[in-house]
Design brief:
3 domains, about 20% strand, flavin adenine dinucleotide binding, TIM Barrel, eight-stranded parallel beta barrel, tRNA-dihydrouridine synthase, RNA binding, tRNA_hU_synthase_CS, about 525 residues, binds flavin mononucleotide, tRNA processing, alpha/beta
Amino acid sequence: MGDTESKTTQEAVAADNTEAKRMQYCGKMMLAPMVRMGTLPTRLLALRYGADLVYGEEIVDYKILRCSRVENPVLDTVDFVMPSGLVVFRTCKEEKDRVIFQMGTADPQRAVEVAKLVENDVAGIDVNMGCPKNFSIKGGMGAALLREPDLAYDIMAALTKAVKVPVTCKIRLLPTREATMSFMKRMQSTGIAAIGLHGRLREQRPREPVQLDAMTAAIGDMHIPVIANGGSLDFKNYSEAHAWMEKTGCDSLMIARAAQNNLSVFRKEGTLPQVDVAREYMLLALQYDNAVGNTKYCLQKLLSKCLTSDLGKQVHGAHTMRQLCAAFGLTSEYETTTRQQEEAAQRFGFTLTPSDDQIDEAKGTPIEALLKEEMDKDGKSDGDGDGECGDEGARKRPKIDPHDVTIIDNAKYFRRHFKRCKTPREHLSNYTTRYNLPAAEFETHQTKDRRFVCTCRVGDSVYAPRDPSSSKKEALQSAALAALIARGVVSFSCDFEARESTLRVLDSNLEPKTTQQSATA
Ligand SMILES: Cc1cc2nc3c(=O)[nH]c(=O)nc-3n(C[C@H](O)[C@H](O)[C@H](O)COP(=O)(O)O)c2cc1C
């Protein structure tokens, strides 16, 4: 084959690949990403009822990058597991060709690392560009990316180059039709396979009507599939959902709240009673050893119309998988399944509970270990950190669940590097004031070797440095630094040998881009 001919063949193969990737998102009904709700049992049930693709809940890049990939022979799943043993993302063969991994990110390099970590276990990768919550926005993620088209472009372009699976993003409407179209086209030019469009503005609440006309207008002459989203208030079953999708003119539909309310919305034959859906869900949660806190949360959503029924009350009062199963009359299924799982675990010599030689690693970083100890003392940790069973009212301040803490590796403050410079706490205070956030809250803990480690809460999020400090003051500053780095407010590097730290303010709303560097003799 001559050079030109082989080039033509390669181009043809590439074109076929691109087309195949796009086809994955054409004429499809999908389960939309939903934090907490979008775990494995929900996704599998949606698929069994007829969904073509299912999105996982958004997982922030920092969090998944701390996980190891573990093949779990007991459940026949692939688990992405934190050093503490927490399963952050669990998937299995049944959904492998149909599950989309959604990440929260504000950084092309981290996005690529995440994509490479999960790409062999999923059917596609999605970037959340629609989340308007403070947690996302302040970290430069979610809907913040709609105002940073260059960064959004860099993230999507890096991803499409780096991985073989299709890459997509999920956005919201921008303030004008032109702005939405221009953003969508920019994303299209990165080579993404499709784009999800939630027909509300970043500022709009979920209860407000979706802007159908604006959606239709924005689709314009896009040549990649556009996935409509946001219509859950307007449909309750498959045929209504399909009709709504057709009104938008989009190629596919992504459903969140209507599915949360009744996962059988994907059934072409019509929806099933909530109780039947919840029972099927319970069986899957049991089979896949889903965390009890998450299972209870999902059941309460799935039973939203029967919360005052006997079943609803039993679910509300349950604290264990056994109690949840009993509420559905599934006690013998519980006994059989858990016995089989225990036997399989013994046979494979497999356990997610850390063995003795892994115990230090499994305890996680010093701050995670300390927080876990405190929760264990209270007996309030339920495995997925929702604290639903906890008696929050009895405490002055709720305990911090170690799983909720974002740990930042290089957040290490040395006082001598910051002489005559603004400290991280000063930068953080400017930041919270500028964005009208409550002042950051700090909690200091002492390790057994008498060093200090501190958490820093900003809004709903908690940050901590990986390493303890030798003084309380340095621990506080390191925690502030962790928050600033994680939220994309500053970039930071520290050269211990050279006794030098470099802190660069990235957020131009705070002050003109400044670099403060200090070196001490
Ligand atoms: C409980 C819940 C959690 C959500 N979590 C996410 C998420 O993790 N990522 C995301 O892109 N959107 C998330 N969303 C937004 C939905 O995916 C969707 O865009 C929105 O609910 C509008 O669609 P709907 O009308 O079908 O509900 C969430 C929505 C709900 C109700």
